[in-house]
Amino acid sequence: MQVQAQPVEGLPRALTIAGSDSGGGAGIQADLKVFFALGCHGMSALTALTAQNTVGVTGIHEIPPEFVVAQIEAVASDIGVDAAKTGMLSSATIVEATAKAVKIHSIDRLVVDPVFVSKHRDRLLAEDAVEALKEHLFPLATVVTPNLFEAEGLLGGSVTTLDEMRDAARALRDLGPRSVLVKGGHLESLEGAVDVLYDGANFIEIDGPRFNTKDTHGTGCALSAAIAARLAHGDDLVDAVRAGKDFVSGAIEHGLRLGHGIGPVNPGWRLPGVAGSPGGADSKTPPLH
Asked: What CATH number is associated with residue 249?
């Protein structure tokens, strides 16, 4: 019997433009898991393939820039995009191609995660792509979400205190994005994990718990994807960032002990029946509703 699919009213459409992580902990794979967990239809445009696991990155194969554009064109022209995020963009030509496609398709809710290196310190962005990122993509962003190392790489200075996080957020916003979220998870001098959001007028500190775990692979990907998902639902930016921070805190708390290195965070931590989640296959606690 042939079944006619029905349009899904009110289903947000979220696009990730990023690299593939063959280990499933970060990149496109993590983003799509987050989109699903937060009630979005997830779509993807791959920028690079990586041979990667919990121990490190052993190979990178870039996608031709014109094919990155073709993927964005395919989904934007047919399905539509309510919000998007970028992750690993690898090269200057891919950055420029992505920026062009974002402008052509008027994707106005854009989260830019300036991915420089993996959790294992493997470089994921070419030197010449840093300036391209600042020149072409930052001015299109609703929010840019660097961690401390990425903020230092973008600005060329040191970011080791809360005051320096504010200074970095101000300097990065001068490059064109509407807002900047400097993530303080690596600032171990603070008891909690404090992120600083700056919109050009106000600094908002968003605090979260700090967990004693090494299984944090994919944290930045999950946060930027969660923010994009909430923007796709129609949240304003502050609410989207707060919701994203809460989601990622849970994903870290329920991180997955997989492999021999840095295990991934758990995007399915809220979903009943998912291993590693409260109420999941390995838990006696009830599922969250």
From this structure: 3.40.1190.20
